[in-house]
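Feature request, filed as a ticket because there's no other form

It would be nice if the structure record came with a short human-readable summary line next to the tokens. Right now we just get the raw output. Example of a typical job, pasted below so the devs can see what we mean:
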Amino acid sequence: MREQERRIRETARAIEQYLLQHPRAADSLEGIAGWWLARQRIENELEVVRAALLRLADEGVIVEVDAGRAAGPIYRLRRGDRATEG
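Raw output as currently delivered:
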């Protein structure tokens, strides 16, 4: 029961955060679950993923490649003796 209550609190917080950022938003249960929460969780995870990518780059596992894209760089496994690419 404790785990379910934690998840309910986190979900309520995510819905509130989305509504604060999009005050005119309105949707169905399915729309909120499928679009709002998914989008909010992706936005929240961007900083974590960015930090993980920086760590892997610092450790020499991956490299950042400027692909000339508006979306920014891409990341790939560093070629060399760490691993072989397939």
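Something like this underneath would help us a lot:
The mean pLDDT is 87.
The CA atoms of residues 69 and 75 lie 13 Å apart.
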